């Protein structure tokens, strides 16, 4: 059951299986976006704390350590145990997520259940990571080993706190790495709770470390640390570039980046307008629009454009905005005052540049960071709202004539995270899917992210892949071994 008065037990840094104060003694507030009021004071980690966390993680990765000597199947069992503890404490995790992030309770429960499934997927992969043997010229036998990279730094965002933690913990732990993670400063509560569960599950000291803090200090220290061998980040393009530069100038650590998007969803003339409008509605307004794959560029064929705009408007107007713990709420607050003002600013710019405001566009209430689901029609490609990532509940509906034209315009962006098409014509579906420059493409659906399929972006939407078997590669090194055999008789 939802609990808006959920007790907050864990507010300190987690290093070597112990909760400790920051070396500096500093704290920072985490705020409830539904009210704008402080939930708790969190220990503020910085370089000194990251150094201690890396030291613990490095010790846990020593060749003779408990973690390194553990069977791969045993690592899988630990991941499964952790997922079972999440299942036991699901209501607590959901309540913390709703308080700290503003997700409506059903959405937060969906994220928790999805995170459990992610950890179980990687629990099953832990003892299936192996190399190859290959024929070699001469009297040689060659084979490859897949070995863990070592200490990895992971920096996660605020929009899907628990899901992003599971996406990064799962492959790193299955591969045998040790972790220093920084949760987003806006949403540290579920990450700290998960740190406590990891100890209860039986992960050895130093395998998992959690350092809450700010990006330039704690995040910067992780990105530049000489003993961290890989950094994984989900967030903005701007910060991704900073992290990549720090990785290059420190020790050339591996980097995986899952960054922003301005994803296109193409509605073809043969689509059922009502069904297409529902798909587009979810593609934009899920998680209050705070979704990197949100289909904020909705391309609609000119023959059904007006009809589609009408249906989209009806859906947006009916969307219930309010307290995430109130039954029936499907749309909570934006994450904080900064994001709230940024989104309202984009809405103002959209109107000034000539887009037609169909519905929404205003703040809701006097407490918290609520914004109406907003739809613009008559949007053109050069408008700011059609080019820049808003990261809020704003749908831009754009008119097109031919599929080739839609593909060209869809690809005319520096992003390439996701894309979708709604059509009853298999040829159109395949033509679009093969031509669009995006890491994930959905046909007659959207947001269908599954653990088994890799997730990531083209162009400035990122480097590397999350989920699926592909994500393991970022946490592994490939070693080639060649052995001289006795001469042939």
Enumerate the strands of the largest sheet in spatial order, edge to edge or round the barrel.
14-17-18-13-12-19-20
Q: Distance N terminus to C terminus?
A: 74 Å
How many strands in all?
A: 22
> Helix fraction?
25-40%
Largest β sheet strand count, sense and barrel closure: 7 strands, mixed
How would the global form be characterised?
globular
Q: Given this structure, which CATH class of the largest domain is correct?
A: Alpha Beta
Can you say what the CATH homologous superfamily of the largest domain is?
A: Aldehyde Dehydrogenase, Chain A, domain 1
Count of helices?
16
Low-confidence stretches: none
Give me the Rg, rounded. Answer: 24 Å
Organism: Anopheles albimanus
Family: Belongs to the aldehyde dehydrogenase family.
Keywords: Oxidoreductase
InterPro entries: Ald_DH/histidinol_DH, Ald_DH_C, Ald_DH_CS_CYS, Ald_DH_CS_GLU, Ald_DH_N, Aldehyde_DH_dom
Give an overview in words.
This is Aldehyde dehydrogenase domain-containing protein. GO terms for molecular function: oxidoreductase activity, acting on the aldehyde or oxo group of donors, NAD or NADP as acceptor. Keywords: Oxidoreductase. The protein has 489 residues and is of the alpha/beta class. It folds into 2 domains: 13-259 and 462-479, 3-Layer(aba) Sandwich (Aldehyde Dehydrogenase, Chain A, domain 1); 264-443, 3-Layer(aba) Sandwich (Aldehyde Dehydrogenase, Chain A, domain 2), CATH 3.40.309.10. 39% of the residues lie in helices and 21% in strands. It is built from 16 helices and 22 strands. The protein has helices at 47-60, 66-69, 72-88, 90-101, 105-125, 161-175, 189-201, 215-224, 237-250, 273-285, 305-318, 337-352, 384-387, 403-411, 426-435, 470-473, and strands at 13-15, 18-20, 27-32, 37-43, 133-135, 140-148, 151-155, 178-182, 208-210, 230-234, 254-258, 264-267, 297-301, 356-359, 363-364, 370-371, 374-377, 394-400, 418-422, 440-443, 462-463, 476-484. The strands form 6 sheets. It has a 7-stranded mixed sheet, with helices on both faces. A 6-stranded mixed sheet has the order 9-8-7-10-11-21, sandwiched between helices. A 3-stranded antiparallel sheet has the order 5-6-22, with no helix packed on it. The protein is globular and about 75 Å long. The mean pLDDT is 97.
């Amino acid at each position: 059951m939802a609990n808006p008065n959920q007790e907050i037990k864990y507010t300190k840094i987690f290093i070597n299986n112990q909760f400790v104060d920051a070396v500096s003694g500093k704290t920072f507030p985490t705020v409830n976006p539904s009210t704008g009021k402080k939930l708790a004071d969190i220990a503020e980690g910085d370089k000194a704390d990251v150094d201690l966390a890396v030291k613990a993680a490095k010790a846990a990765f020593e060749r003779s350590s408990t973690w390194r000597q553990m069977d791969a199947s045993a690592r899988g069992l630990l991941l499964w145990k952790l997922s079972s503890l999440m299942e036991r404490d699901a209501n607590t995790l959901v309540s913390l997520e709703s308080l700290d992030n503003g997700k409506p309770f059903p959405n937060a429960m969906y994220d928790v259940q999805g995170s459990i499934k992610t950890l179980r997927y990687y629990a099953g992969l832990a003892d299936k990571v192996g190399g190859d043997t290959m024929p070699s010229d001469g009297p040689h036998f060659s084979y490859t080993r897949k070995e863990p990279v070592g200490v990895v730094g992971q920096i996660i965002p605020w929009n899907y706190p628990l899901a992003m933690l599971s996406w990064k913990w799962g492959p790193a732990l299955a591969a045998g790495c040790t972790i220093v993670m920084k949760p987003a400063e806006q949403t540290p509560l579920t990450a700290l709770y998960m740190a406590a569960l990891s100890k209860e599950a039986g992960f050895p000291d130093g395998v998992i470390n959690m350092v809450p803090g700010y990006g330039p200090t704690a995040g910067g220290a992780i990105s530049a640390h000489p003993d961290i061998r890989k950094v994984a980040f989900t967030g903005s393009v701007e910060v991704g570039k900073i992290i990549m530069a720090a990785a290059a100038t420190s020790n050339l650590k591996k980097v995986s980046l899952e960054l922003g998007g301005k994803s296109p969803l193409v509605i073809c003339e043969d689509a059922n307008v009502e069904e297409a409008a529902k798909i587009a509605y979810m593609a934009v307004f899920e998680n209050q629009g705070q979704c990197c794959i949100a289909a904020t560029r909705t391309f609609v064929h000119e023959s059904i454009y007006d009809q589609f705009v009408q249906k989209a408007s009806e859906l947006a107007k009916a969307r219930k905005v309010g307290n995430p713990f109130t039954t029936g709420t499907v749309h909570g607050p934006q994450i904080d005052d900064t994001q709230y003002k940024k989104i309202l600013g984009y809405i103002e710019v959209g109107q000034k540049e000539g887009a037609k405001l169909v519905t929404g566009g205003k703040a809701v209430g006097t407490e918290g960071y609520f914004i109406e689901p907003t739809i613009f029609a008559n949007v053109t490609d050069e408008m700011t709202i059609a080019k820049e990532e808003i990261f809020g509940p704003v749908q831009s509906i754009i008119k097109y004539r031919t599929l080739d034209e839609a593909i060209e315009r869809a690809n005319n962006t520096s992003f390439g995270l996701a894309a979708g098409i709604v059509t009853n014509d298999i040829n159109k579906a395949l033509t679009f899917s093969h031509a669009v420059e995006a890491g994930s493409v959905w046909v007659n659906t959207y947001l269908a992210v599954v653990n088994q399929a890799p997730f990531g972006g083209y162009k400035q939407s990122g480097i590397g892949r999350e989920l699926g078997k592909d994500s393991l590669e970022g946490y592994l090194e490939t070693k080639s071994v060649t052995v001289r055999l006795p001469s042939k008789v």
